[in-house]
Design brief:
Chains A, B, C, D, E, F: Homohexamer; trimer of dimers. Chains A, B, C, D, E, F: Belongs to the MoaC family. The structure is a homohexamer of 160-residue chains. The first copy, chain A, is α+β, with helices and mostly antiparallel strands and 160 residues long. Helices cover 31% and strands 29% of the residues of chain A. The first copy, chain A, contains four helices and five strands, in the order βαααββαββ. The first copy, chain A, has a five-stranded antiparallel β-sheet, covered by helices on one side. The first copy, chain A, is elongated, with a radius of gyration of 17 Å. Chains in contact: A-B, A-C, A-D, A-F, B-C, B-E, B-F, C-D, C-E, D-E, D-F, E-F. β4 of chain C pairs antiparallel with β4 of chain D.
Chain lengths: 160, 160, 160, 160, 160, 160
């Protein structure tokens, strides 16, 4: 059973040393969703079709946040990601917007935190853009969907 | 029914002008949770009791992220919050950690995005600190719990 | 004749001390433009009408950059601007996009650098979004158009 | 005729994926200028000769801003530039200061945005340092002068 | 005997809540020094007299770092300082440069961390600018010299 | 005798061009200390043993600051460090805490500024966490202890 790699022998927080790892292509896909009332959903959905502004702002915020991941997460290595993409799928039945982010790099460590950060900040931006309209929007299901590259190989989350 | 205040007449993204608002005491409380498998929960839980390192790192990351909110959320006003607090409640039955953040300011606009950002980044930090152990941790229930101050008055979320 | 207020008697760079200034409403309007070939202009112009993406990205970048002004300009005071707005006027005759930014605050010092920074970064973002198409785009006419508030009173640039 | 590479099929803003590009030496040179009244020019010019403070502050600001390019321009890749240089040529006849910035990297994508950002922020800093003296200074001619490296080969702007 | 105000009852790191404090004029003065071999000192000293570049770079770095204090020190409140000044006194007898920084604000909490951060980063910048010449430079005596404003009144350090 | 590599022939501040350097493993170790009165030392020391909070906050702050080095030190190259570690040794006899930081990268330039920045900000954080208790804490002995990699070979400081 693997141990927490961020804690050294005496329990002190530490950054994993990746100096000796070989750079390989790393890809991570993360997902999440934000749920809202139907009137808010309609507003966002219609915008998506007509002007796309809420989602474009959220997309840009997600991409920019991914680039800031190592400033936000204390033990994350700074990484120059070579690609980050944020996509949205509005789901009318549940009045929610699904968010998916993919990050890529040829590097010494994984990029799942970058994808998860992009999803989280995209969701927060949707909240911020619509909060005057619906204060009870809820962000959920933020999770790693898939990851490849590095010693640990490919991971695909079993979705229920 | 209130309109999206971030969109001007022609649908362009815009920042709300708060220049003429009176500064009042603003408080916001946001919550969220991260769920994991039982072995991971035990690890975190024992740390909390013994050394608190994962949660202390997450707490510090949440506080520092709250101070960066306006760098992350495109239309958020820069604010000098006068207090931000992040608390954790491990729940053994569900193998999850509940996260709650409170932000305060005497200012011209609300601080809910600061509290929501603190919760989100605290959760992402827990994920990062434990990801070598459990890749399937899920962050959910990120939401505004309570908010007061300003023209719109006090809001308390109806929790199911 | 006013002296350079950023240099002390011995020529050392210094920040102006505004501790004793009264907070007043400060407004600044800055302008600029980016010129391009006609094919690029058509692309941007059509986007504006149809999807607005290049300009929306530039608008968001300009707003976010205004919030970073004091990180970029060494002697600028950190300020919590209460409003920043970025607008675009495509001009078909000259194949250029005019950019205008307005910044507002009730504070102890002016916000012209915030407006000028918003214009500059909006222009750079337009360049970045279209550079694969036209490397010779040129940014020009970045200037303060109007400024009010503070001891020095209202300034309106004489436009030729 | 090349298409806008920042827009995917449905017009959504996106970052170009450079994961598969080979790192090569990339060099970019950008230029710009700031014009002012003669009294202000004399002030700056004499400083340059005697103490160089306005221009040294602008130089440092330009270098530091180049390092922040990917934080400012939404779709720019984070890059660890290996060199950035900012130079000034005061031109007495036109009461203007010409600014030139060179950026270098061995990397997967070009560094023209870094050079353009350095020029822009250096110009804004000159404005800020002298604005109490001349509010009508104008920044213009911000453009890419030369670029090499990568698949698209060497570009040299035809200067009129 | 006062308790550590950053630790709550259960030892968790926390930010002090200053929401209810009255804004008053806060001033802090911090000092420090960097010692070097005589050849390096001569180099810096002559630069100071002739061009001042090392010290000007350090001064600008110190001012800019003061503005970033709350990004660096986890529990520091974000503050819009209204003045920060960094001064140097080269001391030929000890081959050292003394650094002093003053910060000011009308605010709800003290600005000593801003002054101490300015001194620290100014010293690090001197080290960086000269490290190819003298790797053994040492930074020392970083301390609060004076502080006023707020409930705790005026503090002046007893210098030996 | 080596020259200041950050200054060009005319005394202008410049960044060293490392584009043509080969990436090699770079390691740097820096040290420093913070001294205090005995009551404060006891407080910190007991925390270290029991909960470690002051030192854990300082450790996290040091790691995060190392990642920000090139934002703080004007002529530092941006680097993606692959490891940074911050350790503390409380010394009861002198009522001081010794701080040591190690940074590592495979890169084109050294990482001593990253280690020195980590030490400095860890020390400032200890000051901030305890300043309500002891305003006269002093930070000293910030220095490079060891450095290897690159053309200049291994350096080990002669400690007195």
């Amino acid at each position: 059973m693997p141990e927490f790699t961020h804690l050294d022998k005496e329990g002190r927080v530490r950054m994993v040393d990746v100096s000796d790892k070989e750079p390989t292509l790393r890809v991570a896909i993360a997902g999440g969703m934000i749920s809202m009332n139907s009137a808010t959903f309609e507003k966002i959905h219609n915008q998506t079709v007509k002007k796309g502004n809420v989602l474009e702002a959220a997309r840009i915020a997600g991409v920019m946040a991914a680039k800031k991941t190592s400033e936000l997460i204390p033990m994350c290595h700074p990484l120059n990601i070579t690609h980050i993409q944020v996509d949205f799928s509005p789901d009318k039945e549940t009045n929610s917007v699904r968010i998916e982010a993919t990050s890529r790099i040829i590097g010494q460590t994984g990029v799942e935190m970058e994808a998860l950060t992009a999803v989280s900040v995209a969701a927060l931006t949707i909240y911020d853009m619509c909060k005057s309209y619906d204060r009870e929007m809820t962000i959920s299901d933020i999770r790693l969907i898939e990851k490849s590259g590095g010693k640990s190989g490919r991971f695909v989350r079993r979705e229920e």
